[in-house]
Amino acid sequence: MFTVGRRDLACQQAVELVTEYLEGTLSRRDRRRFEAHLAACPNCTAYLEQIRTTIRLAGSIEPEDLSPEARDELTELYRRWRVE
Amino acid sequence: METDVELLTRLRDGDEHAFVELIERYQPSMVRLARSMVPSDAVAEEVVQDTWMGVVRGLERFEGRSSFKTWLFRILANRARSAGWHERRQTRGRRAPAADPSQFAAGGQWAEPVERWVEESDNRMAAAEWAPVLRSALEELPRRQRQVVLLRDLEGLSGSEVCAVLDISAGNQRILLHRGRTHLRQRVDAALGRR
Description:
The structure holds two protein chains of two kinds. Chain A is mainly α. In chain A, 68% of the residues lie in helices and 0% in strands. Chain A is built from five helices and no strands. In chain A, α3 packs across α4 (42-58). The radius of gyration of chain A is 23 Å and the shape is elongated. Chain B folds into two domains: 4-82, Orthogonal Bundle (Rna Polymerase Sigma Factor, Chain: A); 124-193, Arc Repressor Mutant, subunit A, CATH 1.10.10. In chain B, α2 packs across α4, α3 (41-57) crosses α4 and α4 (68-82) packs parallel to α7 (159-166). At the A-B interface, α1, α2, α4 and α5 of A face α2, α3, α5, α6 and α8 of B.
């Protein structure tokens, strides 16, 4: 999604590679450059960790519970669909 | 707990309890997904009902090659589309950086140090505490980004499952996911700064 230049990555470029890095879709060369940048950059290392935490936090957002009314209404509809 | 496939087998035999069990399991996620796809809660409800009808009548078309959840979501997305809700393809700004450029100095390095969020083993950020921040950050996302983040990070689908549900390319899925996650992180970081 971001073309990486030939020289060292700047932080602003590195953060745009985070998703592809986590998805495992970076080319081998870009992956090496990304990891080399991380090794030298505590800020981007912290950023990557924040993204991982964000994913974990998002994963625990539950949808609203099913209301008894909605359940009854659907069950009613099911009975109709069966006989139709 | 019975597996989805076991419930589907019972549903084929017309077992109402199996149907109730399936709606207990999936209705909340379906409503949430439908709301990210259509303009009103009322339409979302119709789309979800319509999806269940499609499931009951089209059960034999489920071949078990995908998970039931992915199959279900795919039907839902198709119904949302045929309910007349067409997404405008997102073309503008796709190449623009996702992360707010003002965080960076002219040379592209961070303008301010990135502070670690407190994540030490016994002090992990409590998910419940952050749910309201993340929910409103999700609401702020453009629909396509919201759908991708919802399916990937909230529902736990794989990238290729999301592509199948939303009928988008792998590259597009990654771009939307990237932009969505970047925004969510930004919101959590801003909320931490205000405390």
